[in-house]
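Hi V.,

You were right to ask for the full record rather than a summary. Here it is.
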Amino acid sequence: MKVSAAAVALASALVLANFADQSHGTLQEGFYKGKCNVDVEKIVSDIITPLVGQKPSITPALLRMQFHDCFVNMAARAKKTAIPNRSVRGYDVLDLVKTAIEKSCPGGVSCADVIVMATRDAVAASKGGWYVQTGRRDGSVSLAKNVNLPGSPSCGHTVGVTHCSFIKNCLYNFNNTGSTDPTMQTELAVSLKLKCPYTSTIDNRVDLDQGGRSLAIVGEPTSEIDDNSFYKQIVICRGVLRINQELALNKQTKDTVNKVAISSNDYFLTKFQHAMVKLGAVEVLTVTQGEIRK
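Predicted structure:
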């Protein structure tokens, strides 16, 4: 799989920026307290938490959704139809949450805040979670052609899966060499080739976090749990996607990756929580900017 320089640069920048301190403007915790006489955050949690228990893939879907939302200051209808977002799952979940909120607080909660709260609760159900700042408003521009994004950053690939079609080039024809990506651990390459045979037409799912599949790693695969196992994997060249492995190889990010890999999981969760809060503060509209979409 060929990875664009823009995608690698964006992922690298996010790792560096998101693991440092930063202020978050006019957003605040508990923005909706006292509004509409309902607990808005509880409405979100009561829907998302049981859904994640039934379908863990909701968590990576919402993480990707928040990433796309934070970098596109536009109305929801444009985001849904834009080409980079057509593969983004989770709109049905967000529609379910937004509908429930509208019944109790019509026109009072933005779609942007719904995405942030839903993502937080999904990650919390996957052993993560963080405090959430709210008070966003939605973009009022609705032009799908203005959406121009690379794929989602690898910082959030501690949960989720990819498919064989995205990694076959790395396994069988890296950079048109007819061979495997030389940076990939041999044991991992062998295991992925069994999962993704060259001639197979079945697009199997592949865990992004390969924790537990190496004799050097103790434990079970953790692609449904938000933890630092992903970082432990990429420092020993067990990144499934090339953009993941680049984080451990790039001189700008490798020290941060190594620090997360050797630290406690609590350290990772704290840093991940801070990173998501900062991501949620990128290019936000507040106060009188934008609108609140129904």
